[in-house]
Amino acid sequence: MRSSQLLQCEPVRHYWDADKNQFALLRNTLRAAKALRMVETSEQALERIAAALERLAPPAATRASFDHACLFRHDPKAHAFIAAPDYGLSLDLLVGIERQKSLVVEALTRFAGGLPVNHVLLWGVRGAGKSSLVKAAFMAVAAQAGALKLVEVDRDEVSALPELFETLRERSERFVVLCDDLSFEEGAAAAKALKSALEGGVAGPPENVLFVATSNRRHLMPRDHIESRGAIASAEDAEEEVSVSDRFGLWIGFAPMDQATYVAAVAAYAERFGLATPDLEARALRWAKLRGARSGRVAWQFIRDLAGELGRSLPT
Q1: pTM above 0.70, yes or no
Q2: Ramachandran angles phi, psi of 62, nearest 5°
């Protein structure tokens, strides 16, 4: 109500005529009440805004537990470590890669014991058993070292490695971080992220993390990426990406499997799982011919097919 309207009211005019101080008190009281209503409205609005922000904010991250498994898969979007079942393939079933087995087992044993060890790059022909060797060797070494854990990361999530390494740095466990089939399809950005993770910034690389990568390429760079860019840009990207492979102090190469080694691998699998048949070698060679390759993967695929035919189960 306006002040002019207030003056026309009989009670107000009475107070005005009787005591101007009383009218001033009434006017100030009305103003104070109005201001109080505005303050209460502002506080309610702030409370609504705060409640909305709390709903939008992500929940506080919980500390991951690595107590109930040895193998984990990292999900960077959820900031989670998802437990995986133990790897079932025994190390002694990997035939024809004795030198490579020795090198990987030695590196993992040193790391589990807290000794210095270089990051590992396993490179070579597809299907040679690179990732199988890492997992089988890990299981063999982890059986003697309970604090040893393996975390597998997707090759498309290389950019999340620096954050992952910082998370693992604070843990008491020792972690083998495995990236299977690593290559830099997107160019130098992913290469820079990996270098940052391996170098660790001003804090240095985490002492309790060993990075192991497998790749079909020694220098981790796709050929079509080189050819699709200009000469200067390609040269710069090539230098950036080749420099990443230099961060791996231990390179382990895998050559194509010859026929004798392939047959020996099939025979070892068949003997271990009770799958021997009179025409085993001939069938295995026909299988390889149809696949157009001889490798540990092809040998295992033949054994899986044979086990299914004979009604036998196999480790996954």
Answers
A1: yes
A2: -95, 150
